[in-house]
Write a structure and sequence with these properties.
The protein has five helices and three strands. With 172 residues, it is of the alpha+beta class. It folds into two domains: 50 residues; 94 residues, no CATH class.
């Protein structure tokens, strides 16, 4: 009697395994069929794209009177007057700045353009026309304080450079 129960349990296990295998095969066949359909569609799309007439690329020419908008030196961003005042106070009126906002972040990029006479670039880089730009990402929450701290750090580094070169510092 025990043996009959064992056989029955084993038969049940075997039947369950066979049933599962059949379901897997059905699913696999369905998946293969779907993949073949997708592959066929992709092949048709590639054929259509390759055989389509090619359009000539349109060249965009600026309209007359729009040159100032396309000029790289034309100001494209707003520079807060308070930031300008901080730069004038900490560095001097010779320094230029730029604020770049990010669409997806709560910070802004603050660039300070160092004039040639204050630049710590090598003479070789200066001759190549490399611009000395000091850039920092500042959290918007810091705002003016972040700009002030960045200008202060730039001033400190330039003072160290002038001291190392044996030149008088241009800052007060």
């Amino acid at each position: 009697m025990n043996e009959e129960k064992k056989e029955t349990k084993e038969e049940k296990k075997t039947n369950a395994i066979l049933k599962t295998q059949k379901e897997i095969l059905k699913t696999q066949k369905g998946t293969n069929k779907a993949l073949n359909t997708i592959a066929g569609s992709l092949t048709k799309l590639v054929d259509i794209q390759q055989n389509a007439p090619k359009k000539e690329e349109e060249k965009m020419e600026p309209e007359k009177g729009k040159e100032a908008e396309m000029d790289e030196t034309y100001p494209k961003t707003y520079f807060p007057p308070k930031y300008r005042d901080i730069m004038d106070e900490m560095l001097g009126k010779d320094f230029e700045g730029r604020v770049t906002d990010f669409d997806d972040r709560t910070e802004f990029q603050f660039d300070v353009f160092i004039p040639k006479e204050y630049s710590s670039l090598s003479q070789e880089d200066k001759e190549k026309g490399v611009k000395d730009v000091r850039t920092r990402i500042i959290p918007r929450a810091l705002g003016e304080n972040g700009v002030r701290d960045w200008c202060k750090l730039i001033r400190t580094n330039l003072n160290r450079y002038f001291a190392r070169e044996g030149k008088a510092t241009p800052f007060k």
